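Quick question, first post here. What does this chain look like in 3D?
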Amino acid sequence: MSGFRRGVRLGIDVGRARVGVARCDPDGMLAVPVETVQRNETSIQRIAEIAAEYEPLELVVGLPVNMQGADTASTTDAREFAAALQAQIGTPVRLVDERLSTVTAHAALRSSGRTQKNSRSIVDQIAAVVLLQQAIDTEKSTGNPPGATIPSDEESR
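> Answer (accepted):
Ran it through. Tokens below.
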């Protein structure tokens, strides 16, 4: 487990209508769902409250690139949301490729016998769990933090 930075992390799956939030324990053993936050003008504030409760080492925000790895409108949206989160909370934010997290989440829910309709409220949380678990596993296997950081205001000047 060399190179794994100990500490709670929050996984954030940014969607147009909802934002899924997950967290892991300080040893990164297990990512679990926390909450689905409605996407509106209070989303950032609500996630800041969740962050204050768990005091994470960092936030891991899923970057929805397309299958070729290129940016989409959703990618830009997620980057802007992540930057706003970092500015509000002051906790480092890492952007990680989440190409398959929502697909994986839907498949997991289907295999547990849930329909698409009755999964809607938790699929975002499960997607956040999937992307956070992938980030933790990547860091544990490579010894390097996952994804890329958002430059803070000081660094981008």
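The beta strands are 9-14, 18-24, 31-38, 58-63, 93-97, 148-149.
The mean pLDDT is 88.
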